[in-house]
Amino acid sequence: MYYDPIKKTLGQVFNRTPWLRRLFYHLLDLLLLRTWHVHRELRRWAKGRTQEPLNILDAGSGYGQYTYWMSGLSSKWDILAVDVKDDQVADSNHFFRQIGRRNVQFAVQDLVLYQEPNTFDLALSVDVMEHILEDVEVFRNIHASLKDGGMLLISTPSDQGGSDVHDDGETSFIEEHVRDGYNIREIQQKLSTAGFERIEARYSYGEPGQISWRLSMKYPILMLGKSRLFFVLLPFYYAVVFPFCLLLNWLDARSTHDSGTGLIVKAWK
């Protein structure tokens, strides 16, 4: 199914006021398991750096929730958030001006082409690379755009059931994906080819996370894909499943997984 129309509808609902958008961000932070893993890695990276004037690239910013979270950690960080969708970029710029976060700028850019040599201390790519066929080109551009010692943090589906694909005959749950998921050695090799010298990769979305994802994301999206009337039922649905999803997310983020449907990858220039 196509996920973008549902995302656009959700964005329109929560973009009506700054308060609703903040609420939307907080709900995403709690519900989306990848956010738990990404925030954990970002906290580790940020330790001892919040008073430093650093430059950060949010490569594929989407709704802007990760930029919002990072900009709240330090006003000394300058964050450039890029995306290919004009409407999301415009909405995000408007929202961040409304709340007075002047250290953030959103811009329309194609990651296959965008490069800003030796500029950024950190680059973040969350649920982006599964949408881009020319992934090595993107990795090369990000590598060139990082300063020496800079880090790229990636969250993306793995080939162990990412995109809800478990057999050769199955197709991705999300139609916009150009690949079902990365083999852990494949993405390490591609990053190495792009010039990264040190690479660490681990699985996310182990057993607890997979259950949480089905409850919090897959089933609601399938319902909304059938009819927008399910928007009315969503609050009641989440009232039941939300506590279980929180517990499952907490367990997954604090466990080491031999396999999982997601990958968390860190690579340094």
From TrEMBL:
The keyword Nucleus does not apply. GO terms for biological process: methylation. Coiled coil: none annotated. GO terms for molecular function: methyltransferase activity. InterPro entries: SAM-dependent_MTases_sf (IPR029063). The chain crosses the membrane at residues 229-251. Keywords: Membrane, Methyltransferase, Transferase, Transmembrane, Transmembrane helix. This is Class I SAM-dependent methyltransferase. It comes from Hymenobacter glaciei. The lineage of its organism: Bacteria, Pseudomonadati, Bacteroidota, Cytophagia, Cytophagales.
